[in-house]
Amino acid sequence: MGVGAIDASLCLRGLQEAGTLACATRGTDGSPRVRYLSALHFELDAVYLLASRGMPFAQQLLADPRLQLLGAVRKGVSVRLTGTAEPAPEEEQVRWRLRIFQECPEYRELYPPSKHDDSLVFLVRNGFFEYLDLTANPIDRVYVPFGEGRVVESGYRITDACARCGTCQGACPERCIVGGTPFRIVQEHCLQCGACKEACPRGAIERIGG
Ligand code: SF4
Ligand code: SF4
Q: Separation of 52 CA from ligand 2 center, angstroms?
């Protein structure tokens, strides 16, 4: 698939088809926390998550709404959504909860009816996707905004200190550095391995993002 065909709806569908997603948050002590989620519902403009109000997961999101959702579309192909979660509006909680229980009946057992009111639905509607296909040659990596989110890219960038010697091109396993003033990394095909930065005799390549 060409990288131009990758948009937010395709990324959302990739997460939906993955079914079970890894979800990373920050613990209330600041440490990283990750778990698998499958109590989910997808709309065109949001992902809905179910959590018990007392669970550390819900408490973490209430304290710090930043999260990442990661799904494997197939071997070597993944979609990551970086965004923020917010509780669904109070008047919509029951509706989305019932929808998730309908789509994930196993959770109806986990949350017996007497405990249904204890669960809380969060939604993620702003952030950005990263679509990564490691099976393509060169690899494909596409960033796509979601809702009102802004893309925060990571990787490497060639600065104006570039002397155009071409050493980095020889070091790049993805052949994704093109000539110019300065040379330029084609970010859609960059593995973010850092080999170019190590090889550059001018120190002209810098790390960007988190
Ligand atoms: S190795 Fe450094 S100086 Fe040489 S072309 Fe690459 S970025 Fe420019
Ligand atoms: S980070 Fe790796 S893949 Fe990306 S341009 Fe540099 S050498 Fe190539």
A: 43
